[in-house]
Amino acid sequence: MSEIKIVSTNKKAYHDYFIEDSIEAGIVLVGSEVKSIRLGAINMKDTYCLIRGDVVELINLHISPYEKGSYFNEDSRRARKLLLKKAEINKLRGKVEQKGYTLVPTKIYFKHGLVKVEIGVAKGKELHDKRQSLQEKQQTRQIERDLKNYNR
Description:
152 residues, globular
C-alpha cells in the first residue's frame, strides 16, 4: 500500500481545462521549500509547465519562504525543474505540439517522503463547456440530496 499525502490540488485546472492524460514527476527543491510544502504553504494558482530543450520546468508555483529558514530560502516563484525520463518528455512534447494542448500541474503530494507533482495534458475549455460542466455538477448534487432525503 503506497503512502500518499495530497498537499495541494489545482482546482482551477479542472475548471479551465479537460485533463486528458496525466503523469507523475519529481520536483527539484531545496530543503526549506520541502519544509514549507509540509506546512501547506503552497499556491498552485496560475501554475503551468514548459518544455525547454530536454527539461520540463514548473513555472509560477508559489512556495512561501520557510519561517525558520535564514538565507537558505530561495525565490518563492522561481522556475523549478521536473524530474522526468527522456522518453516521457518526448511523449509530452508530442502531445503539447498539437493545437490547443498544454501542460498543467493538477496535484502536489508526498509519496514515500518525496514531493511529487501530477502533470496533466490539458485542452482548454470554451465558455459553453464550463457552463455545461457546472450544470452537470449541480445536477449530481441535486440527485444526491434527493436520494439522501428519500432514504429518510
